[in-house]
Amino acid sequence: MTDQPDISPPGWLSATVQTYLRVYHRHEVRVDAPVPDRPVLFVCNHGFGGVIDLNVAAFVAARQAAGVTRPTTAMVHQIAWTLGVGSVVERLGGTPGSREAADEAFKAGHHVLVFPGGDVDAGKSWRDRNTIKFHGAGFARLAQEHRVPIVPVVTAGAGESLLVLSDGQAAARALRLPKLLRIKALPLSVSIPWGVNLGVVGLLPYLPLPTKLVTAVMPEMVPEADESPEELAERVRQAMQARLDILTDGRTPLLG
Known about the structure:
There is one protein chain. By secondary structure, this protein is of the alpha/beta class. It folds into 2 domains: 11-160 and 210-248, no CATH class; 163-207, no CATH class. Helices cover 36% and strands 17% of the residues. The chain has 11 helices and 10 strands. It has helices at residues 11-24, 54-65, 79-82, 86-91, 99-107, 118-122, 138-146, 169-174, 177-180, 200-203, 229-248; strands at residues 28-31, 41-44, 72-76, 94-96, 111-114, 150-156, 163-166, 188-191, 195-198, 214-217. The strands form 2 sheets. It has a 7-stranded mixed sheet, sandwiched between helices. The chain is globular and about 45 Å long. The N and C termini lie far apart (42 Å). The model has no long low-confidence stretch (mean pLDDT 88).
């Protein structure tokens, strides 16, 4: 195997993260089906975040709860390297998201982790916090070409860790951020310690509210005969949305 990043943190860090999730966010993990013992493409939804997203930590905990031992390489938005924290992301098992990086990870026998919604999904408003938004079908094409199953992992609750008033996509376009920084959303939010701000929370750490998190590791999904990448991507999104709807049915914000 080639040397590839692995999202498995050191033992002390893993224990710290899981304790934080369990105590502060009362995190629950539901493993709907075993993860196959061969490389898979993990597909996750965003809660809220940029450099930091609770759903990433929730995935790490869920991965361990599901008994996954195969290394996992995470595809991460380029903004982390633009902001100068890429080295930290790399030490935690992330790499700049690209087709070449994913190809290398699969070649090394790793699982690959993607968040297909990118900052569009990560910057959702409070109103859309329980809606999964994908941006493109590249992940589906990747799974088809490498002939690996897709394992969806859905987390509910992270979108309640602060109040997002607007996703700020219009503001991002006005500032030409999609071209300059590959940022398509500039959320207007209320958070601790930043108060009311535009975009800052997506780029800097914030103190999340003690929202309850629930993560479901779903059964594997494989491409159907003659299914286009777009059709597969939408089928995965619909399956994840249906699972998220169950997780959030009757949910009280923050309390779960």
